Amino acid sequence: MRSFRRSLAVVVAASALLVAASLLVGHGDLGDGALRATFVELRATRAAAAFLSGAALAIGGLVLQTLFRNPLVDPSILGTTSGASLGGQLAIVAFQLAPGRLRPAFLVPEMVLPIGCLVGALVSLAILLAVIRQTQSELAVLLTGFLLSSLFLSAGALLVSLAQDSWELGRAVVSFTLGGVGGAGSRHVLLGLPLVLAALVALWCWARPLEVLLSGEDEANTLGVDVPQVRFWTVVWVAVGTAAAVAIGGNVGFVGLIVPHALRPLVGISPRRLLPVAAIAGGAFVVLCDMAVRAAPFRGELPLGVITGLVGGPLFLILVLRSQRAAARA
Amino acid sequence: MPDALDVQRVSVQFGARVAVADVSFTAPHGSVTAILGPNGAGKTTLLRAVAGLARYEGTISIDGIDARQLNRRERARRIGYVPQQSRLDAPLSAFEVVAQGRYAHHEGLGPLGAADRAAIEEALRRADAFGFAARSFVELSHGQRRRVLLARALATGARLVLFDEPTASLDIGHVLAFFRLVRELAAAGGAMVLVLHDLAHALRFSDVAVMLQGGRVAACGAVAGVIAVDPVRQVYGVELVPDGALGFREAR
After folding, report:
1. Looking at this predicted complex, what is its ipTM?
2. Full-prediction pTM beyond 0.80?
3. Cα B160 to Cα B239: distance, rounded to the nearest angstrom
4. How many alpha carbons lie under 13 Å from residue B132 in its C-beta half-sphere?
5. A216 Cβ under 8 Å from any chain B Cβ
6. Which of A160, A225, B126, B230 could be A220's S-S partner, Cβ–Cβ 3.0 to 4.6 Å?
């Protein structure tokens, strides 16, 4: 317990320092007294958006790894983020193309994207769960995730091509597809904050049965866990968190893979302890990646997912090789 | 007082294959019941049905209550289950694994209470697993893992405990210690139901035996009457050798 508190304190302090440092990075001179407040506000909003996106993706990865008893899964590898992204793209296109009289009065434009992302994430996870009911094979789960991811990305690319017929629509879809928190405003943060917080709290409430589920469904069942209920609600809340993350920052991959994996040696495997730490560390990791985006010496801004992909891809490969070696030793 | 376990005309079917057919037996409080039979006789399937892991026809009652009327938590507090092998491959400590046994007692979201901790420590001591409570489950030997799984079942506080081949992977010292513990638990009013392969262990340590063949009961009753010349020849195709020590030879 003492080492957990120490790890939590270190992660909180490091994250706070990172967020503070992120206010100092970016175009624009903070020495300019007239613009300083504006720059700080813009950077703080951007840091908050990056933090929320990273927190949601990290807890999503952690929970899916626990649920599937597989350290190699995360929302991007299982196709959840690309499902959410496709849902968001479809929502943008449908909203823009639908005649005004067909749009429900309660549906304000800011709500369209998160709702689309949520539906996309839920559909993606539902397909995956249906496959898992047929087979427990780790390889089958991963292959299904890759397949779903490719399918959704291809469908998204098709949608981007079709959307080019209208300049404004094409620009909106491309901008969302590339991802990043550069365009995130306070409305994005205010909309994402309750969703991410709700997902974090709800998933923490399911952490105890999730921990028992590490022993497999049969043993969890005999120990009193309502396995179908746990599976259903955790998938729903992961989808909510992932949808919020994608709506804020686009399709940012590998965060859910890297962060829990880095924390387990420090905090242990218990999801009850890991969840809050993963949320903070995940947020800080994406803030750090966004700082790299801002500091990169390019004329245009790199998509955030490029940075997380460059770090996450090789790490994923290392994890796969390590997992194969461990399986060979067993 | 109703029996701890009352199994009446229970059948389990997987598609067209009947794994358990019309099995009936009771396990009273204070008894050790051995479920015997050759490979594929339906022993583990029967145990899984009692544990709530396999759909069945017929009636299974726990302390006089139809098991179908119990919710998951109630059932977990009444039935402890020790599987043949755990699917746990995550590095939880042995203490954390045993703490899973308190899940059904713990409604809130907070940390374990003093009563939970006392139950876990007592279970670890009884299963002789206290010495490696802090070690990772996946780093333990098979025998040590089995003792941790036994401790987890004891931590549930259930008086009916089901064991699926509990002595596999245990050295002879821990086999004897395990059966001593089983007898102690039974003497304290518990009902122990064990799937066993070793007839010598069943004869020495159990009171009642149910011998299955092809999913059906071939013999049931006091253990000395079940592990006898005729049932053993009929079910296993071997002859009991009455030479003072328990031994077998192939049937002619």
Report:
1. 0.89
2. yes
3. 33
4. 21
5. yes
6. A225
